[in-house]
Write a structure and sequence with these properties.
CATH topology: Rossmann fold
Shape: globular
CATH class: Alpha Beta
Order of helices and strands: EHHEHEHHHEHEE
Number of domains: 1
Largest sheet: 6 strands, mixed
Strand content: 15-25%
Number of helices: 7
Radius of gyration: 16 Å
Strand order of the largest sheet: 3-2-4-1-5-6
Number of strands: 6
Length: 202
Protein backbone atom coordinates (compact mmCIF):
# COMPACT_ATOMS: atom_id res chain seq x y z
CA UNK A 1 0.00 0.00 0.00
CA UNK A 2 1.38 3.38 -1.01
CA UNK A 3 2.12 5.97 1.68
CA UNK A 4 0.28 8.68 -0.27
CA UNK A 5 -2.95 6.68 -0.57
CA UNK A 6 -5.63 5.46 1.80
CA UNK A 7 -7.21 2.07 1.08
CA UNK A 8 -10.90 1.89 1.99
CA UNK A 9 -13.07 -1.23 2.10
CA UNK A 10 -16.72 -0.14 1.83
CA UNK A 11 -19.00 -2.99 2.94
CA UNK A 12 -22.78 -3.30 2.97
CA UNK A 13 -24.40 -4.55 6.19
CA UNK A 14 -25.78 -8.07 6.66
CA UNK A 15 -29.35 -9.24 6.12
CA UNK A 16 -32.33 -7.88 8.06
CA UNK A 17 -35.93 -9.05 8.23
CA UNK A 18 -36.93 -6.12 6.04
CA UNK A 19 -34.32 -7.15 3.44
CA UNK A 20 -35.84 -10.61 3.39
CA UNK A 21 -39.35 -9.18 3.09
CA UNK A 22 -38.14 -6.76 0.38
CA UNK A 23 -39.21 -3.69 2.34
CA UNK A 24 -37.51 -0.35 1.80
CA UNK A 25 -35.54 0.42 4.96
CA UNK A 26 -33.92 3.80 4.47
CA UNK A 27 -33.17 5.29 7.89
CA UNK A 28 -35.70 3.06 9.69
CA UNK A 29 -33.48 1.39 12.28
CA UNK A 30 -33.96 -2.32 11.60
CA UNK A 31 -31.42 -4.68 13.27
CA UNK A 32 -29.62 -7.61 11.69
CA UNK A 33 -31.41 -10.93 11.85
CA UNK A 34 -29.65 -14.22 12.66
CA UNK A 35 -28.70 -14.83 9.04
CA UNK A 36 -27.30 -11.31 8.81
CA UNK A 37 -25.09 -11.92 11.83
CA UNK A 38 -23.88 -15.17 10.28
CA UNK A 39 -23.09 -13.36 7.03
CA UNK A 40 -21.01 -10.84 8.99
CA UNK A 41 -19.15 -13.70 10.68
CA UNK A 42 -18.30 -15.16 7.26
CA UNK A 43 -17.00 -11.76 6.16
CA UNK A 44 -14.93 -11.53 9.35
CA UNK A 45 -13.20 -14.77 8.37
CA UNK A 46 -12.80 -13.54 4.81
CA UNK A 47 -11.06 -10.36 5.97
CA UNK A 48 -9.17 -11.97 8.84
CA UNK A 49 -5.75 -11.61 7.17
CA UNK A 50 -6.26 -7.94 6.30
CA UNK A 51 -4.97 -5.38 8.80
CA UNK A 52 -7.29 -2.44 9.27
CA UNK A 53 -6.17 0.68 11.09
CA UNK A 54 -9.66 2.04 11.72
CA UNK A 55 -13.29 0.90 11.50
CA UNK A 56 -16.17 3.26 10.74
CA UNK A 57 -19.87 2.54 10.44
CA UNK A 58 -23.23 4.14 9.90
CA UNK A 59 -24.90 4.68 13.26
CA UNK A 60 -27.90 2.56 12.21
CA UNK A 61 -28.06 -0.76 14.08
CA UNK A 62 -27.70 -3.07 11.07
CA UNK A 63 -24.47 -1.43 9.92
CA UNK A 64 -23.00 -0.93 13.40
CA UNK A 65 -23.56 -4.57 14.37
CA UNK A 66 -22.06 -5.79 11.09
CA UNK A 67 -18.96 -3.65 11.72
CA UNK A 68 -18.67 -4.91 15.31
CA UNK A 69 -18.77 -8.55 14.17
CA UNK A 70 -16.19 -8.04 11.40
CA UNK A 71 -13.88 -6.09 13.73
CA UNK A 72 -14.29 -8.44 16.70
CA UNK A 73 -10.88 -10.15 16.51
CA UNK A 74 -9.06 -7.05 15.28
CA UNK A 75 -9.57 -5.30 18.60
CA UNK A 76 -10.65 -2.07 16.97
CA UNK A 77 -13.47 0.10 18.26
CA UNK A 78 -16.21 0.94 15.76
CA UNK A 79 -16.69 4.68 15.29
CA UNK A 80 -20.19 5.52 14.09
CA UNK A 81 -21.36 8.51 12.08
CA UNK A 82 -24.63 9.79 10.66
CA UNK A 83 -22.75 10.71 7.46
CA UNK A 84 -22.83 7.01 6.48
CA UNK A 85 -26.56 6.50 7.02
CA UNK A 86 -28.74 5.09 4.29
CA UNK A 87 -30.70 7.57 2.21
CA UNK A 88 -33.85 8.84 3.90
CA UNK A 89 -36.71 7.60 1.69
CA UNK A 90 -39.36 9.61 3.52
CA UNK A 91 -42.90 8.28 3.17
CA UNK A 92 -41.71 5.32 1.07
CA UNK A 93 -39.90 3.64 3.98
CA UNK A 94 -41.50 0.33 4.93
CA UNK A 95 -43.09 -0.15 1.51
CA UNK A 96 -42.59 -3.35 -0.49
CA UNK A 97 -39.84 -2.95 -3.09
CA UNK A 98 -41.35 -3.43 -6.54
CA UNK A 99 -40.35 -2.36 -10.02
CA UNK A 100 -43.02 0.35 -9.83
CA UNK A 101 -41.64 1.71 -6.55
CA UNK A 102 -38.08 1.70 -7.90
CA UNK A 103 -39.24 3.66 -10.95
CA UNK A 104 -40.85 6.22 -8.65
CA UNK A 105 -37.71 6.53 -6.55
CA UNK A 106 -35.23 6.80 -9.40
CA UNK A 107 -37.28 8.91 -11.77
CA UNK A 108 -38.04 11.61 -9.21
CA UNK A 109 -36.27 14.94 -9.56
CA UNK A 110 -34.87 16.81 -6.56
CA UNK A 111 -38.03 18.87 -5.98
CA UNK A 112 -40.21 15.73 -6.03
CA UNK A 113 -37.83 13.99 -3.62
CA UNK A 114 -38.00 16.88 -1.17
CA UNK A 115 -41.82 16.90 -1.28
CA UNK A 116 -42.02 13.28 -0.08
CA UNK A 117 -39.26 13.74 2.50
CA UNK A 118 -36.69 11.80 0.46
CA UNK A 119 -33.03 12.76 0.52
CA UNK A 120 -31.69 14.01 -2.81
CA UNK A 121 -28.67 12.55 -4.62
CA UNK A 122 -26.86 15.85 -4.09
CA UNK A 123 -27.35 15.70 -0.32
CA UNK A 124 -26.27 12.05 -0.08
CA UNK A 125 -23.15 12.57 -2.22
CA UNK A 126 -22.21 15.69 -0.28
CA UNK A 127 -22.29 14.01 3.14
CA UNK A 128 -20.67 10.80 1.88
CA UNK A 129 -17.72 12.52 0.24
CA UNK A 130 -17.28 14.87 3.18
CA UNK A 131 -16.72 11.74 5.24
CA UNK A 132 -14.58 9.85 2.69
CA UNK A 133 -12.26 12.78 2.01
CA UNK A 134 -11.69 13.48 5.71
CA UNK A 135 -10.98 9.80 6.39
CA UNK A 136 -8.64 9.49 3.40
CA UNK A 137 -6.59 12.56 4.27
CA UNK A 138 -6.22 11.50 7.91
CA UNK A 139 -5.32 7.87 7.03
CA UNK A 140 -2.83 8.12 4.17
CA UNK A 141 -0.74 4.96 4.04
CA UNK A 142 -3.36 3.12 6.08
CA UNK A 143 -6.33 0.82 5.51
CA UNK A 144 -9.85 1.60 6.71
CA UNK A 145 -13.05 -0.46 6.95
CA UNK A 146 -16.34 1.35 6.35
CA UNK A 147 -19.71 -0.39 6.84
CA UNK A 148 -22.76 1.32 5.38
CA UNK A 149 -25.77 0.65 3.13
CA UNK A 150 -26.76 -0.46 -0.35
CA UNK A 151 -28.23 2.86 -1.44
CA UNK A 152 -25.12 4.70 -0.31
CA UNK A 153 -22.85 2.28 -2.20
CA UNK A 154 -24.97 2.50 -5.35
CA UNK A 155 -24.76 6.29 -5.32
CA UNK A 156 -21.01 6.11 -4.68
CA UNK A 157 -20.41 3.78 -7.65
CA UNK A 158 -22.51 5.88 -10.01
CA UNK A 159 -20.73 9.06 -8.88
CA UNK A 160 -17.37 7.38 -9.56
CA UNK A 161 -18.47 6.29 -13.04
CA UNK A 162 -18.74 2.54 -12.42
CA UNK A 163 -22.37 2.64 -13.58
CA UNK A 164 -24.40 5.22 -15.46
CA UNK A 165 -27.36 7.11 -14.01
CA UNK A 166 -29.56 5.23 -16.48
CA UNK A 167 -28.38 1.92 -14.99
CA UNK A 168 -29.11 3.03 -11.41
CA UNK A 169 -32.41 1.20 -11.03
CA UNK A 170 -30.77 -2.13 -12.00
CA UNK A 171 -27.68 -1.96 -9.79
CA UNK A 172 -28.12 -4.55 -7.03
CA UNK A 173 -25.87 -4.48 -3.96
CA UNK A 174 -25.94 -7.81 -2.12
CA UNK A 175 -25.67 -7.96 1.67
CA UNK A 176 -21.94 -7.95 2.59
CA UNK A 177 -20.98 -6.80 -0.92
CA UNK A 178 -17.88 -4.62 -0.86
CA UNK A 179 -15.97 -2.04 -2.86
CA UNK A 180 -12.24 -1.49 -2.37
CA UNK A 181 -11.16 2.08 -3.01
CA UNK A 182 -7.88 3.93 -3.05
CA UNK A 183 -7.79 7.66 -2.44
CA UNK A 184 -5.34 10.50 -1.96
CA UNK A 185 -8.08 12.53 -0.29
CA UNK A 186 -9.12 14.17 -3.55
CA UNK A 187 -9.56 11.47 -6.16
CA UNK A 188 -11.11 8.04 -5.58
CA UNK A 189 -10.27 4.94 -7.59
CA UNK A 190 -12.29 1.72 -7.58
CA UNK A 191 -9.80 -1.16 -7.39
CA UNK A 192 -12.16 -4.07 -6.71
CA UNK A 193 -15.84 -4.75 -6.21
CA UNK A 194 -17.66 -7.92 -5.24
CA UNK A 195 -21.31 -8.87 -4.70
CA UNK A 196 -22.54 -6.07 -6.95
CA UNK A 197 -24.65 -6.94 -9.98
CA UNK A 198 -26.26 -5.15 -12.88
CA UNK A 199 -29.59 -6.92 -13.27
CA UNK A 200 -31.81 -6.95 -16.34
CA UNK A 201 -34.85 -6.62 -14.10
CA UNK A 202 -35.18 -5.61 -10.45
Amino acid sequence: MQDNLCEIYVVRHGLTDWNRERKLQGQTDIPLNKEGEEQAEVMRERLSQIKFDKVYSSDLLRAKRTAEIIALEKRLAVETTKLLRERNYGSFEGEKVTGELIDKLYNSNSDEMIQIGMETDESLISRLFTFLREVSISHLGKRVLVVCHGGVMRTLLIHLGEFTKEEKRNVFINNLAFVRLESDGVEFFVKEKEGIELLEEF
